[in-house]
Amino acid sequence: MTVTVCWSFRSCRSCFFPGGKETVAVAAIRHSGAEFAELLRRALAAEDHPADAVTACARELATGLRESGWIDGCPVTAAALETLGTDSEIQQACADALSQWEGLVHDKLLAGGYPPEDARELATTVISALEGAEVTAQVTRSEAPLLATGRQLTRLLRSYGI
């Protein structure tokens, strides 16, 4: 039975993912990247002001992590760290996901009246801060890092007077 199941899995995997493990990993990263993008879209759309939207996103991430028992963090970040220094499809899929997320925040900031250059840099700051806070929240098993990051990002965005 084990041999049959194993052979079936390998056969199935090679049919759907002819590139092997790396292709499977890239597909998983793209899927999780799209899931996070959807969470981000929902959170950003839930509030009119970008600062409030970022806070909503941080809260949603914190709640999701707590409810998952601190295990449902961002696999894109983990994969990106594991493939540092490589020029692999996995690394490219991670970079694409991060770029997509920054683009969503950038668009929200532009729509909120932020100047284009500031919007680009702020989008990078928002995604970087949220990703770092998510890892810290997982390690400490606490919502506090994400909630604090959300509050500080709100202060930063509001400091532009927009």
UniProtKB/TrEMBL annotation:
Pfam families: TetR_C_13_2. Keywords: Transcription, Transcription regulation. Signal peptide: none annotated. InterPro entries: Tet_transcr_reg_TetR-rel_C_sf, YxaF_TetR_C. Coiled coil: none annotated. SUPFAM superfamilies: Tetracyclin repressor-like, C-terminal domain (SSF48498). Residues 50-152 form the Transcriptional regulator LmrA/YxaF-like C-terminal domain. The keyword Acyltransferase does not apply. The keyword Glycoprotein does not apply. This is TetR/AcrR family transcriptional regulator, lmrAB and yxaGH operons repressor. It comes from Streptomyces harbinensis.
